[in-house]
Every structure is written in structure tokens, then in C-alpha cells.
Design brief:
- By secondary structure, this protein is mainly beta.
- It is 3% helix and 40% strand.
- The protein has 3 domains: 38-162, Sandwich (Immunoglobulin-like); 171-306, Immunoglobulin-like, CATH 2.60.40; 330-477, Sandwich (Immunoglobulin-like), CATH 2.60.40.
- A 6-stranded mixed sheet has the order 12-9-14-19-16-17, with no helix packed on it. A 6-stranded mixed sheet has the order 23-22-25-30-27-28, with no helix packed on it.
Length: 478
């Protein structure tokens, strides 16, 4: 291994041991894949004036991926291949696009990072992806350049790989959580990034929504065990989620099953997902999905029971099937310490070697606010791809120490792999697999993973403004 790198992964269990009991059922056997199935998907990135319910009667120039819906949700069986055609019809000259399949451990040339693994898809061009997801669970997809604006305008979708249930739940709902940077009075987008926000916690949107609605009511079969897939696609906001008025258990983190554990409160940063099962209220009753991060706590959505009761026994949710992520061998793990911090007086490398690949101006700003291991993304207009942060040995286990000495949160995302999150010096953690880890201010997290997927893989903070102002890089697995 040469150099150092920032490996992200994982939502923290804020359902803390001692406050949230573990239920009695263990994980089921891993899912068996189907064979011979291909799922076609056409995505067209374009500007589509859209009046979402949360836009207060205004129509805004959203950028989306489908003519049929502002939020494409793709469900596919485990073992099927996904065959994607991407066309770029974005209206701005040079506004290239590509699709990153967030959390999917796919072949490197399908990862969707422009310049690093594929050419950028310029307006008027097309590109094809084809891969077979190796894991069941809840994932999403988004473009991977000019991320603050692209996410801010709506360039994202949901990918669900089915086959992980040991028995059917009584409902299965996607809840997409995000803010919008809009002036509701004028009906127009605000600036998607600010220097003040980029150098601090990020630039927040004033309009908060679930599935494009402010405070929706979601109907569920009464007294049923209902699966809710909570996905934070906001470029900035961190949520502290809980359920009031119903029993609830976490059954998966970032798509990977965990033995059910009661939900108390959960920190869900940008790009993180949790699947929960709730026992829905009786007919006419409501529970609330709540964000406790603000005072007073903010109800995000009402969950209403409808109809005759589905279940009458006590709440003991069926577990999911175990995932397919390889278990790290800690007895043979190689150490790796990673530090995510503000730039301060860090020595930002200047890369002007014309032999290195050209990046173009779209993906990054000229500001250097953040670093990984005291090095930011290279300067010189951020125009050249730098050397990798680290070169890892294929098949080896790495024990990763993730340090955040800064005053701000950093949800760190790793491409191509999934971490097992083991311990924190700030919180009690139930060990679990995940691909995006939320580092609290001045927190250190211990994690591990098997570097079994060859290629060039990104590492970055998923607060989009942090990513675009230095807290990003890539590592290689050979």
C-alpha cells in the first residue's frame, strides 16, 4: 500500500445498546439469485419544468432522469442484470453527466465517475451501463459531477434489489428525504452552494420534503408490519430520525441486513439509508416520522393505519436475509489511518503534469476548504487527475481508523466496497455493514473491509460542497 486514503462507509446505529432492545429473530440465509433475467432502463437527463407539491404552487426548472416521473424507482430481482441507456439532454453547454450507482459493489468501469472510470457524457451523447448487483437492498443513483446543483435540481433515482425478505411485510414504501434550495415566495431556485456553507456545515435548503411533499400522510395497512425504506438524498442535511406513536425496528443499514433492533434515534446523513419495519397504527390512528435534530422536533410525515387489523400479536419483526458482503479477517488486517479535516494550513498539491488525465472545470470549484490526511484535491484549477491516495492489495483486509478532528459532520462514502463499522469513541455501535459512515465532530470510528473489487474507486464526503472543495480522492485495488 502506498499513501493514505479516506474510506467511508456506514450509517451509525443511534439506536443505542441499553436503550433499544434487540428482537429475538436472527438473519435468514442469504438470498439465492435468479438467472437469465435482464431489466432494461432508459434514463434521459433533461430539464423538465415541474410543480412538486412542496413547491407551493410554483413550477421550477428541475433536472430529472425520466419523462414519466420526477423520481424513478427501479425494482429488480436479485441476480438480474440491469441494462441502462443514459442520454444527456441537459440544456447547458458542457453540462456533462454520468450515473453513479450508490452503494452497489459493481465492476469499476460501471461506477459512473467521469474521467476516473468513464468519459463524461456530454449534452447530445448517450452512454450504456450493464451490471448485475451482487447485493440485495435499498440503493439509489445520481450523477457524479457538479453534485450540489445536480442533486439540488433532482437528478437522482432509487434502485431496489429485491429478494432479501424472509417473509413478506404488509407494505413496502420508499420515503425519499430531502430539502430544496428554493425561494417559495418567488418560485425559483436559490444558489445551490455558497462559500460560507461549503466551508462549514453546508448550504441548507429552506423547504423540507418527503417524496416531494411537505409533511405527507402515508397510508399503511392497519396494525401491519410495514417496511419503510428511508433514503436521505439531500446534498447537505443530517437528520436524527425516530418514530413516535408506533413500535419500529431497524432491519437494514445502507441496504445490508442487520438483526432487527428497536429504533430509538438514528443519525442519517446525506447518501445514507435505513430500512425500518413499523407496526402501523390501528385504523384511523397515526404515527409520526420525526426529525429530532431541531428543537422542537419536526414531524416529517404522518403514517396512518387504514382498514381492518392485519396482525394481532406482539411486535417481533421478521428479519431480512443476510447480505453477501465478505467478512473482514481482523486477525490479518492491515492498519490504515484516515483523517478528514479543514484545510487550514495544509499543503495543497499543485498538479500541472500534462501527462495526467484532464478533468475539466465542471466537477470541482476552485476553493480548497477540506482535506483528507492533510491533503486536499490538487489545485491548478483542479484540472488534472491526481495520483491515487492509496494502492491496496486485492483480497487483503484493511482495518481503517477514520478520524474527524473538525467541528463539522462528514458522511464519508466509499465506492466499490462496503465497510464493517465496528466501534466509535463517541457512540455505542452495534457492528454492521454500510457504505457511508457519518463522522461526528471530533469522532474516531474503527471499521474494516476486504479490498476484493479491483479498479480505481472514489472516496469522498457526501456533503456535496465538502466533496467539491477538497474532501475527495481515490484509491486503487490491484
Amino acid at each position: 500500500m502506498t499513501g493514505t486514503a479516506a474510506l467511508g462507509g456506514a450509517g451509525l446505529l443511534a439506536a443505542l445498546a441499553g436503550r433499544a432492545p434487540v428482537y429475538g429473530q436472527s438473519l435468514g440465509a442469504p438470498a439465492e439469485p435468479v438467472t437469465g433475467v435482464t431489466i432494461p432502463l432508459d434514463l434521459v437527463a433533461a430539464e423538465r419544468p415541474t410543480a412538486l407539491p412542496c413547491f407551493a404552487g410554483h413550477t421550477l426548472p428541475m433536472w430529472t432522469l425520466s419523462d414519466e416521473t420526477w423520481l424513478p424507482i427501479v425494482r429488480m430481482p436479485f441476480g438480474a442484470a440491469l441494462e441502462v441507456s443514459l442520454e444527456n439532454r441537459l440544456p447547458r453547454e458542457g453540462e456533462h453527466a454520468s450515473i453513479h450507482w450508490h452503494g452497489i459493489r459493481l465492476p469499476n468501469d460501471q461506477d459512473g465517475v467521469p474521467y476516473l472510470v468513464q468519459p463524461p457524457v456530454l449534452p447530445g451523447d448517450r452512454y450504456a451501463y450493464r451490471f448485475t448487483p451482487p447485493d440485495t437492498g435499498t440503493f439509489f443513483f445520481h450523477t457524479h459531477c457538479n453534485t450540489a446543483e445536480h442533486l439540488g435540481r433532482g437528478l437522482h433515482g432509487v434502485l431496489i434489489v429485491e429478494g432479501d425478505e424472509t417473509e413478506p411485510y404488509d407494505a413496502d414504501e420508499v420515503l425519499l428525504l430531502r430539502d430544496w434550495r428554493i425561494d417559495a415566495a418567488l418560485g425559483q431556485f436559490l444558489a445551490f452552494t455558497t462559500n460560507r456553507g461549503a466551508g462549514r456545515a453546508g448550504t441548507y435548503g429552506p423547504v423540507r420534503s418527503v417524496n416531494g411533499i411537505v409533511g405527507p400522510t402515508i397510508d399503511l395497512p392497519a396494525s401491519g408490519d410495514c417496511r419503510l425504506r428511508l433514503i436521505n438524498v439531500d446534498p447537505t442535511r443530517i437528520l436524527t430520525l425516530g418514530i413516535e406513536g408506533a413500535d419500529a425496528a431497524i432491519v437494514a443499514v445502507d441496504g445490508v441486513a442487520i438483526a432487527p433492533i428497536a429504533l430509538f434515534r438514528w443519525e442519517l446523513g446525506p447518501a445514507m439509508r435505513i430500512d425500518i419495519v413499523i407496526r402501523s397504527p390501528a385504523d384511523g390512528g397515526t404515527a409520526q416520522l420525526v426529525d429530532y435534530r431541531i428543537d422542537p422536533p419536526l414531524p416529517l410525515a404522518a403514517l396512518r393505519g387504514v382498514g381492518a387489523p392485519v396482525r394481532t400479536g406482539g411486535f417481533d419483526p421478521a428479519p431480512l436475509r443476510a447480505g453477501h458482503v465478505p467478512e473482514p479477517d481482523l486477525s490479518k488486517a492491515l492498519p490504515w489511518e484516515l483523517r478528514f479535516d479543514a484545510s487550514g494550513d495544509a499543503d495543497i498539491a499543485v498538479v500541472d503534469d500534462p501527462a495526467l488525465p484532464y478533468l475539466g472545470p465542471l466537477c470541482l470549484t476552485l476553493n480548497d476548504f477540506w482535506t483528507i490526511n492533510e491533503a486536499g484535491w490538487p489545485s491548478a484549477d483542479h484540472a488534472r487527475l491526481p495520483a491515487p491516495l492509496a494502492e491496496l492489495t486485492r483480497g487483503a483486509t484493511y482495518a481503517v481508523t477514520l478520524r474527524n478532528p473538525s467541528r463539522f459532520h462528514h458522511p464519508i462514502h466509499i465506492h466499490g466496497h462496503t465497510l464493517k463499522v465496528l466501534a466509535s469513541d463517541k457512540q455505542t455501535i452495534v457492528p454492521h455493514f454500510a457504505d457511508t459512515v457519518l463522522l461526528l465532530p471530533e469522532e474516531t470510528i474503527q471499521a474494516a473491509f476486504v479490498a476484493d473489487n479491483p479498479g480505481k474507486w472514489m472516496i469522498h464526503c457526501h456533503v456535496a460542497e465538502h466533496q467539491e472543495t477538497g474532501m475527495m480522492g481515490y484509491y486503487t485495488v490491484g
